[in-house]
Design goal:
2 domains; 312 residues; elongated; 25% strand; alpha/beta; 7-stranded parallel β-sheet; 27% helix
Length: 312
């Protein structure tokens, strides 16, 4: 049977997390469909049709789907589920909101945050903040799955030519309503999609130091800015910068951890980075256990020196 991927999009374009979920779906079989649920989301549906490996795009368009309210989207996904063996979504805020509801409506278990596909019914997922990997097997007729996006290389966003099929959306559940959205705007790359990330921890001592010390380094590298939970809880930076088990999961080409000790919750969110550079005055800090390169010393001296060297 076919595999359905629930797309993450903004009603205009497909987000990269969807490409990672499609890559995971490709390990389950060649017949991959993508569901685009939204309002006036024709451009997003066209973009989904161009993803390499996608055989069909289901496009549900209705005003009450425009803001991806979980109750409405879950009802839609459950309604089309009978034609599929697997239902996948990225393990993002939206995916974590929608897919448990889908599983409940279908009376099956959810398989969360998979990092590998061993077979049609067998998957690997991290547990204990990523310190252990569990291999799980499901006997449910329909597998409802969220995908750890950093564990799968993104499928190509072009090269496909899938047909787009309109599907009707169920009526508005009336269980929730969209009130407002506050979106932080930045000229920097989006954290979960950035190829380079510069992150600061409690060792930064203040939010002002993030601006004075870390931003010049991020500017020089063209990097996104991140932070540990300790720095966020201390009020140094906004919570949408948080990297870790309770923040964002990232896997950039380069991750620079400055003044971050390396609690397991933080490591769970960034240890899949290709190259990790750690700067910390404590040579026993756990971050050095996962770092490819480590510098022991005063970050307030090392980082400005590094910025000066990058200017040459």
């Amino acid at each position: 049977m076919a595999v359905l991927v629930v797309a993450e999009h903004d009603n205009r374009s497909i987000r990269k997390a969807t490409l990672n979920a499609v890559a995971a779906a490709q390990k389950l079989g060649p017949d991959i469909h993508v569901l685009v649920a939204g309002h006036q989301a024709g451009e997003a549906a066209k973009a989904a049709a161009q993803i390499a490996g996608v055989r069909k795009v289901l496009h549900a368009d209705a005003p009450h789907l425009g803001d991806f309210l979980a109750e409405n989207v879950a009802a839609l996904v459950a309604g089309v589920a009978k034609g599929y063996s697997h239902l996948l979504a990225p393990s993002t805020s939206n995916g974590k909101n929608v897919m448990p509801r889908v599983a409940a409506l279908l009376d099956v278990q959810q398989i969360s945050d998979i990092s590998a596909v061993e077979g049609a019914d067998t998957f690997v997922r991290p547990i204990y903040a990523g310190n252990a990997l569990a291999t799980v097997q499901s006997k449910d007729s329909i597998k409802v799955i969220t995908v750890r996006t950093t564990a799968f290389d993104a499928a190509a966003s072009s090269g496909g030519s899938a047909p787009i099929e309109a599907v009707s959306a169920p009526a508005d559940s009336g269980l929730s309503s969209f009130v407002s959205r506050e979106v932080s705007k930045s000229e920097r790359p989006e954290l979960t999609a950035a190829k380079i990330i510069v992150s600061g921890g409690r060792g930064m001592a203040s939010g002002e130091n993030f601006t004075k010390v870390l931003e010049p380094l991020a500017d020089r590298l063209g990097a996104a800015m991140g932070a540990s939970r300790a720095a966020v809880d201390a009020g140094f930076v906004p919570n949408d910068w948080q990297v870790g088990q309770t923040g964002k999961i990232v896997a950039p080409d380069l991750y620079v951890a400055v003044g971050i000790s390396g609690a397991i919750q933080h490591l769970a969110g960034m240890k899949d980075s290709r190259v990790i550079v750690a700067i910390n005055k404590d040579e026993e800090a756990p971050i050095f256990q996962v770092a490819d390169y480590g510098i022991v010393g005063d970050l307030f001296q090392i980082v400005p020196t590094l910025v000066d060297e990058l200017k040459k």
